[in-house]
Amino acid sequence: MANTRSDWEQRFQSLTLEGRAFIDGQYRSALSGDTFECTSPVDGRFLANVASTDEADANAAVIVARQAFESGVWAKLAPAERKRILIRFADLILDHQDELALLETLDMGKPISDSLAIDVPATANAIRWSAEAIDKIYDEVAPTPADQLGLITREPSGVVAAIVPWNFPLIMASWKFAPALAAGNSFILKPSEKSPLTAIRIAQLALDAGIPKGVFNVLPGFGHTVGKALALHQDVDVLAFTGSTAVAKQLLIYSGQSNMKRVWLEAGGKSPNVVFADAPDLHAAAQAAASAIAFNQGEVCTAGSRLLVERSIRDQFIPLLVDALKAWKPGHALDPQTTVGAVVDARQLESVLRYIEIGKEQGARLIAGGNRTLEETGGLYVEPAIFDGVTNAMTIAREEIFGPVLSVITFDTVEEALQIANDSIFGLAAGVWTSDLSKAHTFSRGLRAGSVWVNQYDGGDMTAPFGGFKQSGNGRDKSLHAFDKYTELKATWIKL
Ligand code: NAD
Questions:
Q1: Among candidates 259, 265, 226, which has minimal Cα distance to 243?
Q2: In this structure, are residues 387 and 367 in contact, taking their beta carbons and an 8 Å threshold?
Q3: pLDDT at 3
Q4: Rounded distance, CA 220 to CA 439, Å?
Q5: SS3 218
Q6: For residues 172 and 9, what is the distance between their CA atoms, to the nearest angstrom?
Q7: Is 301 in the pocket of ligand 1 (CB under 6 A)?
Q8: What pLDDT sits at residue 52?
Q9: Of 18, 104, 266, 299, which is the active-site residue?
Q10: Whether residues 203 and 300 fall in one domain
Q11: 244 and 288 housed in the same domain
Q12: 81 and 119 co-located in one domain
């Protein structure tokens, strides 16, 4: 187990980085031979040349995925057998936790301690949870007249393609492939071009675990090439997506232009975190608010990026918040003490810094952070920032920044807080802090969001569904509800 930054550096020296696509149980270069360079935002080091797959590779992957599906080699295995193999896959991921954590951190910049404590175990857990569920889900018999037998059965959808982002590369992918594979589908994973390495690595682990070749395929490459090709493909049955709202909308169009494939979208957010004067513990609320914007460099779809504070406690709360943010200090992402790592790439860093300028220009007051830092490392680091005096009409309160920039908005009444909270095109998550049970319930009910946290921010595990209202998406990841996305319901009427 590596404990220091130099342990991790040593571990890196012994890594062999694979950058090829994984199709039909083998690593392969892109058919075009094209590659793109993968460099680390942690310190600018070169990591790998990665296959830049395109439509030709997508076609090849869909053919083998379809053949694997039709052959029944996976789809027709007993659920208990798929369970056994998937649990072995989860175990192999844990066996390789150091390697996968290192790849995840170097590829997209998050602190190594988070990769190790959160991303890798959560991925294994998602697989294990879906695997454990699959041989406990029963089909239904309809309440028919006596001369009929009505069977309501679920069938795997067929070929599932998933297009995922870079902020939690393994976890976001596993929320899709775990239920899809457990249900018997063939799967094609298109990781983000900014973070392809762990997806490529686990493909081999899937095969080693016993998932038949052709059932789990990985196509690294860009959205406008291989992503688009999968979304427009006539023989992909389901497209599962996590990413921005803009791309999500485009995928709906691609579906309409092709085969009406089911499109499941987990998109952006601009989540309100509402602190009432009667919050049970303002210190805890301040700490949670700081974590809600700084964890994972603020690159979190559910980031609590709009902090709504009741005016009567504003002067007391802001110093607590500024103080709590001090625990979130950028550091070299391979240092196990680091709480805030590197921003994923130069473009994202520029975008975050531009939003900070827009906040100032529009009259919000920057009261903490907001500068680029640690440039001497060669990495891309920014101090988490707090803006006070924000109105919900300002750009920094309306647009998803996807970086550590918090907007503090003051309110006077419960009605005003709810109106501001819901005044967004997004509806992914929300937090509410109050000791009044009735207010907690009525406010939660009024929030138009897929996840609501009361007197905490960011709770959750595999047991509850996750997803968005409004332009934050449709469908749900996690929990038994996730199986709805990867199965078709069939009604069979038997005349008795
Ligand atoms: P993005 O939309 O730019 O890219 C996501 C994926 O889509 C990438 O793999 C990309 O290559 C691909 N893509 C881009 N254009 C495409 C096209 N025309 N056709 C097909 N594929 C295309 O998002 P991102 O920058 O990678 O991630 C950040 C976004 O993800 C944020 O908006 C964030 O809120 C969202 N997100 C949402 C959730 C959720 O569960 N709701 C979770 C994590 C991240």
A1: 265
A2: yes
A3: 84
A4: 47
A5: strand
A6: 26
A7: yes
A8: 99
A9: 266
A10: no
A11: no
A12: yes
Q: Specify whether 301 is catalytic.
A: yes
Using the mean position of ligand 1's atoms as its centre, give its distance from the Cα of residue 227 in Å: 10
Rounded to 5°, the CA angle 159-164-165 comes to 175
458 is a domain residue: yes
pLDDT averaged over 10-residue windows placed end to end, the chain, 496 residues: 90 96 99 98 98 99 99 98 99 98 98 98 98 98 98 98 98 99 99 98 98 99 98 99 98 98 98 98 98 98 98 98 98 98 98 98 98 98 98 98 98 98 98 98 98 95 98 98 98 98
CATH number at residue 301: 3.40.309.10
Asked if residue 99 is part of any domain, the answer here is yes
Beta strand pairing status for 21-23 and 272-275? unpaired
> Could you give phi then psi for residue 38, rounded to 5 degrees?
-110, 115
- What is d(CA 94, CA 116) in angstroms, rounded to the nearest whole number? 10
Pairing of strands 148-156, 140-141: antiparallel
Q: How many domains does the chain have?
A: 2
Ligand 1 binding pocket includes 247 (Cβ within 6 Å): yes
Q: Of 99, 299, 82, which Cα lies nearest the Cα of 186? A: 82
298 and 387 in a common domain: yes
With respect to residue 122, please indicate whether it lies within any of the assigned structural domains.
yes
Residue with tokens 């067929």: 158
Is residue 247 within 8 A of residue 230, CB to CB? The reply is no
266 a catalytic residue: yes
Any ligand 1 atom below 6 A from CB of 474: no
